Amino acid sequence: MDHPLRAGRTITQPTGYRAFIPAPLPPDPALQVDGPLLALLSQAERDLGRLDALSTLLPNPDLFVAMYVRHEAVLSSQIEGTQSTLEDVLAFESELVQDSTPKDVEEVVNYIRAMNHGLARLAELPLSLRLLREIHAELMQGVRGGDKSPGEFRSSQNWIGGAGSTLRNAAFIPPPPHELMKALGDLERFLHDSREQLPLLVRCALAHAQFETIHPFLDGNGRVGRLLITLMLCAEGALSRPLLYLSLFLKTHRAEYYDRLTAIRSQGHWEQWVAFFLRGVSQTARAATATARSIMQMREAHRLAVVQNARALALLDRLMVQPNVSAPRAAQWLDCSFPTATKLLIDFESRGWLREVTGFGRNRQWRYQPYLDLFHQEALDGSMSAVLAPAQVTGSAFSGLPPAPST
């Protein structure tokens, strides 16, 4: 059933444009978490629980978290138009930037820093507007959009639309500046006061959609809004490690994602949005679980092959944190001589574990390619799932936002 005013209302502003003013969460009439939606919720909670349980069994969970954070940073940034790959980010971190390295790699590196900052700050600061502003400041520092008030909520009107759009013909206009802090205050209260009312995953779905509707920054809203999901899961203990990120699912189902957000605002279709979100949680958690298991199996196989060599074992562990390596770096990691490190790297290359990536005779760099391939396979499997088994669309048909919305 449609409830056009359930999510808020569009109000004509003094200068003539029409902006959307969101209603406070939770939705009214209340969200109906029953029937098929309840089944989706139960499945998503089970899938998330399996992922979290597996993360506690990993020999050293922090070895994997660093790569998952990079992987998410690449995917989330690609939604906003960046071209950088996981390999580009690793090369940048290894100071191996080439002429072919995309200039936007620093945006991805900023996302990694912003994510790590937010996760670290959860230990001393509740999930709050203050924390979101800190994350935004890290995200936008010194990159495209860095001149658009990093770390500050906007004081001017923004909008979403195609190239050349204006306030007169925008696809969507968020609340005007004078309504912004009330909407954000309502969202912050929902984050803190709704824990007994609704299941966590449902609250994550509602909070993410509301944040994107409010669009509180001049740039970077999509990335901060996606990070908000992981922060909520970690802050409330559903994940002991930040291993669930929905960017791949949202990128793969991008058209439906924007359609669902539009339908919330125009028709009050909160239930359909939550169902879409829960499908994403299930699919993403299952994929992350499979990848983690594959990593564990690969790690064990590689360790067994060199179990008598303490330096080789130490190098394998370091490669899971930083898969790019040179002989000087390996020598520093292992506290050994350059020839010893070089011999070990060449041995790993002969086993098919390392790939030389420079083509140089000197100053060579290697990459732990089988490890990276597992993350690429997860992305490929996620993309293929949309082709082989597209998400079911329920409810009324509606038009989506343009393909290149504001970030």
Automatic annotation (TrEMBL):
Active-site annotation: 215
GO molecular function, one term: ATP binding
Keyword Cell membrane: no
Pfam families with a match to the protein in the record: Fic (PF02661), Fic_N (PF13784)
Source species, domain of life: Bacteria
Designated name of the protein: Fic family protein
Chain ranges of the Fido domain: 127-279
Record's keyword terms, sorted: ATP-binding, Nucleotide-binding
Binding site for ATP: 80, 215, 219-226, 257-258
